[in-house]
Design a protein that fits this description.
Structural class: mainly alpha
Number of helices: 5
Largest sheet: none
Distance between the termini: 58 Å
Low-confidence stretches: none
Radius of gyration: 16 Å
Strand content: under 5%
Helix content: over 70%
Number of domains: 1
């Protein structure tokens, strides 16, 4: 029987996945072909869209959710996986992201 991952290996794996996911989604949303698709931004960066619709375009600090969103997700998943609750960590992250997506879409309707 093959031994499982060590806690260090779990953190390394989640860190790599987090960096790859962040780079790929950012590159995807920023491509000129997609460029100005606000619906996609609600899916990929819901926390940023909440701040954008709440405070408007002028607040520079609203870029903070874009920078921190996926690293926070990665930290939550890594912490849960270290405690052998990987699926619970994914469920929390997924629920938080879907909830934020719904809130960001609701904020666009007035």
């Amino acid at each position: 029987m093959k031994p499982g991952f060590t806690n260090r290996q779990k953190v390394v794996h989640v860190t790599i996945w987090t960096v790859v996911l962040t780079v790929l989604t950012t590159a995807w949303v920023m491509t000129p072909a997609i460029g100005d698709n606000e619906a996609l931004e609600h899916i990929v960066w819901p926390y940023w869209m909440i701040a954008y619709h709440w405070y408007g375009r002028g607040a520079a600090w609203i870029m903070v959710p874009v920078v921190l969103q996926y690293p926070v997700y990665g930290w939550l998943v890594a912490r849960a996986w270290k405690e052998d609750r990987f699926l619970a960590g994914l469920a929390v992250v997924t629920s938080a992201h879907v909830g934020a997506m719904l809130l960001s879409v609701l904020m666009t309707t007035k």
